[in-house]
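Question: Hello, beginner here. Any chance you could explain the protein record under this note? Any guidance would be welcome.
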Amino acid sequence: MAAPCGRSCRRAWAALVPAALLCLAARAAAEPGTAPGATSSTAEFDVRPGGEVHSFSRSLGDYSCSFTYSAQGGTNEQWQMNVGVSEDSGLFSCSIWRPQGKSYLFFTQFKAEVKGAKIEYAMAYSQAAAGALSDIPLKQEEFEITETTVSHREGKFRFELSKLVIAAKTPRDEL
């Protein structure tokens, strides 16, 4: 069983996880696809409006990530999902985003779920970085994080979503 994690531990994770995610994302950009033994995989998918619930999933080894949502307005938007495992297999990451930066769809709900690992860090954004634009995080009150999910918070979520980032700790066999 792990020792309790205080404020300094959370700060260390807050610094470590984005750096690990950047490394995984850079590797995904350099080596797209799902070759056997790959440590990351990126796939494109359409986010479709119409008010129906849709889902998109990717797996990498023993780990998977699924994105379930309902959106209104506009037309289909091209989004991407990247899943990756760190070289030491200690972290599983899942990033879901609109490469153009801002989504013009009105999200009525969203949930990202990881299987095979427990979430250590997650953030949701109303705008993803693209061109001269920067990431704009949702307010903490707009979404909630559990051990395996990141989802909208009913009555608090303001219907804007352009990016989700998750870093999850993989189980380790201890001697």
Remarks:
- Helices lie at 7-30.
- The longest helix spans residues 7-30.
